[in-house]
Design a protein that fits this description.
homodimer, about 150 residues, alpha+beta, Arc Repressor Mutant, subunit A, 3-stranded antiparallel beta sheet, 5 helices, DNA-binding
Chain lengths: ~150, ~150
Amino acid sequence: MAKAKERESQWAASTNERLAQAGFRRGGARAAVVSLLDEQSCALSAYEIEGLLAARERAVGRASIYRILEQLDELGVVSKVELGQAQARYEPVRPDHHHHHLVCDKCGAVIAFDDEALERAVHSISKRVDFAVEGHEIVLHGFCAECR
Amino acid sequence: MAKAKERESQWAASTNERLAQAGFRRGGARAAVVSLLDEQSCALSAYEIEGLLAARERAVGRASIYRILEQLDELGVVSKVELGQAQARYEPVRPDHHHHHLVCDKCGAVIAFDDEALERAVHSISKRVDFAVEGHEIVLHGFCAECR
DNA sequence: ATTGTTGCAAAGTGTTTGCACAAAC
DNA sequence: GTTTGTGCAAACACTTTGCAACAAT
């Protein structure tokens, strides 16, 4: 049942459902963005999304891409991550695949990682501060294996 | 001996020394920026720095502010933090005052916090990945006490 | 006198907005 | 037919760069 490459994975399916619930109509541009994101395991920038969609003959205007990503972020199905590269990246939120990022300061490569202890630490901080923590973002900077 | 409000704190002193060592001349604009940063315990944006300097009658051109901050960042005496607000913030690096940030998604407030367990977790990840980790940045998003 | 430093204005980059047209309902 | 979605171009915000004037050595 947890096969990774269904025609439409869990994420795209539940995203489309959420969109419908929220009263959105079905638009071709949004479908293309959702379908592209669905194939990703890590974060893409708006420009990368634009390029990838153009490459597969389903070009979507840049403004539409930003609008769609914002909607998906607000719905909570996409998370916008700012890795300190002067541009935002977006990735599908899959409940069981929470992760963080290593960013190479030389080549800009982005690598995902996850860590239980880190999550626990964040969780315990969330309880101790006078602040309603909704999410967190952890970025490790340095040099990847190739640039080192 | 660890009095917080010396005429010139440890940080400004060692920063000026590092600047001299690195062959920089003494410039008024840079001195003003260093002196302002020296008074901060948390991160300021370039625009905030510009405004604060103007308010104290030592206006510094915006381009100079960015250039100076970049130099200080490269020297390692300032750290550039990207809190996902479409702008960078800069704070003095004080070896014994490492901290991270809570960012209010409504009003933009930035609050510092630190946590031992978090640091330990990051440190242990650094050793386990195939990546030369040089630094890290942890941001907790949510709503501050006032906006909640 | 030489060379680093500064300020201004212009250019750049990623993102957002205004608006007219097309598509969904 | 009404309302939402989309694409284009223009506007925006933050940052960087080019260049001439200035200050430190």
